[in-house]
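Hi P.,

Sorry for the delay on this. The queue was packed all week, but I finally got your sequence through. Input first:
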Amino acid sequence: MNMPLWFSNLLFWSAQVALLALAAGFLPGLFQIRQPRVLLAYWRAILGLSLVLPFVEPWHRMQSSGSIASTPRLGNISAIPASNPAVTHWHFSSFPIIAEILGVAILAGIAARFVILALGLLKLRQFRRASSPNSLSAESAAALDQMRAQLRARAEFRLSTDVDSPVTFGLAAPVILLPERFLAMNAQSQAAIACHELLHVRRHDWAHHLAEETIDAALWFHPAIAWLIARVRLAREQVVDLEVVRLTNARKPYLEALLEFANARRSLATIPAPPFLAERQLVERVTLMLKEVRMSRTRLVASLTASSCCIALAIIFAVWSFPLKAAPHFGPYPPQRGIVAPGVSGGVRSAPSGGPGAPSGGPSGGVTGGIGGGVSGDSAKRQHVDEPTVDQTTIWVDTTKKGPMLRQVRGLGRLVRAEGSTNLVGRVTLPAFMTVDVRPNQNAAIATRKGPLANGHVSGISPSPSNDTRSVDLALDAVPPGVSAGLEIDATIDIEKLENVLYVGRPVHATANSTVSLFKIVNDGKEAARVEVKFGRSSVNTIEVLDGLQVGDKVILSDMSSYDHANRIRLTDEKHLSSR
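Then the structure:
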């Protein structure tokens, strides 16, 4: 059983964000970036990247696991055949029930957090209704009006017995609730506090705070998201702190006001409004105000450039290490790219070398040239104008046959010592779906990079640490001299022999029990027309044909996804023509 796809993607995205947050948290200290405005933009960018990462990164399309396939032969190719599951670099045991329970818990937590957010908004509304606009002294009201005019920020100051620290909220009609102790503070401290809250109003920080609360509620289960939001809020408060000191020139009274409200946060913990002071931020905010923070423009630009490069590398590493996976595509045009294993029987056309590691005697996995567009002509020739041209030397073709077909699976492994014995056995690891029909005593051929090694048979099948794979032990009929444990092997296991079946070489995108659109050679080899072919059982190099082809029909096995728009193509031999 496999891990549910949604749970796997959620887990991998969480790991991606954790790696990104870890790298982002390390870089400001490394490059000595301390400017609050720069840090605010920086942390907002990191938070935004974390949220949009699933929408901008490439997803790995999982492939149908309904066929028996092989892993590639050592020394020839390093790609994974199209019928194998999507490649990942990390494997986890699948716990569908646990994943379902965790999914319910996550959804319940999200619902609870949004209920708490709604209750907090209702509590703010109640606090506003219970507050008094006329309880301020004439001196305090004058100081507040002066500060409001200086900052050109429209907000209503109200005195509340329900809060023990200043609270600012509201978009269309902002309200600043002041605690009763505000009246006992000196004029400079009152002006500094009013300046702080009015700056939040002018910057529309309550809207940002609500957006962060919404993100935090939806992703409450991810500690890295909560940490990033906390860094954003700290940077925002530091920006406001420095602006207050610059405007009021009252650093000491402002610091005294911060210390005054340092322990007065208990009653406001569930209110979705920016706090005048979060106690955990006190040290960093005070430290910043007590020292000069300067950096030359050149050094700042260099530091930000280096940080951006490091963040890009962290994203690439995170996406590569924990790739998100899309559901399998079961339509007639699977989007996967694969390589058919070498050795397709039945007169497959030999083609020029496909580059380093390309197999010989089998399809190359893609058309590599000879594509011509339509040519101009009158309406009578328009059908030919719309047909793309393909060079015959760049494609792989096989002929449909009827007769015995050998089903096989193939995997990679090593020679190991058998348990309780000095005898060598071949141990290969296969995806679990490929071992469904593997049975003891089935024949196997074992090879190395240098060529065939020995014949053998299946001696045992056991689960691997990951439930997605199985270990298959192969007893060797004879061990050549000089062979030792640890040697890498490539084993092909004979599953069964099918008698009197219609079959063809396995096309790039063909999987067992699927319907695939192929190009069939017509018109004496001058053209190829698209046909729908229904396949049955598959093997390493061949696949059973259930419908759509007859004995003698020739089909193109190569990747023809570049011609999805065409129902017919013209075949030419440009290499032959150019030599005449």
